[in-house]
Amino acid sequence: MDRVTCTIRVTGKVQGVFYRAHTVEEALRLGLTGTVRNMPDGSVEVVATGARGKVEHMVAWCRGGPKAARVESIDVRWHEHPAEFDGFRMAG
Q: Coil, strand, or helix at residue 61?
């Protein structure tokens, strides 16, 4: 299995709209591990680890997010080595 990790920075109206909670639900549905957290600048940061296709699906999901969110942009950074997490949860 080709395990990968990426960090996704999501900007727009993404805080106060349950973006993190829905991200956790989607990540668990996909079988990913990692974290999601609100950032001081109003963005949301997602770190996801799992099979490449499932992480790519998470990236695509982040472009839209939950119904109440208004995503303006996402920045995706792929890591050289997969990170190890115990489950997927909200951090910070």
A: helix
**Looking at this protein, which amino acid is placed at residue 69?**
A
29 included as an active-site residue = no
C-alpha dihedral over 9, 57, 86, 81, to 10 degrees? -70
pTM of the predicted protein model: 0.95
Q: How far is CA 27 from the centre of its chain?
A: 7
70 a catalytic residue: no
pLDDT per residue rounded down to tens, the chain (92 residues): 689 999 999 999 999 999 999 999 999 999 999 999 999 999 999 999 999 999 999 999 999 999 999 999 999 999 999 999 999 999 97
Angle among Cα 40, 13, 82 to the nearest 5 degrees reads 60
Q: Which helix (H) or strand (E) holds 30?
A: helix 19-30
Among 29, 38, 63, 89, the one annotated catalytic:
38
Q: What distance, in Å, lies between the first and last C-alpha atoms of the chain? A: 30
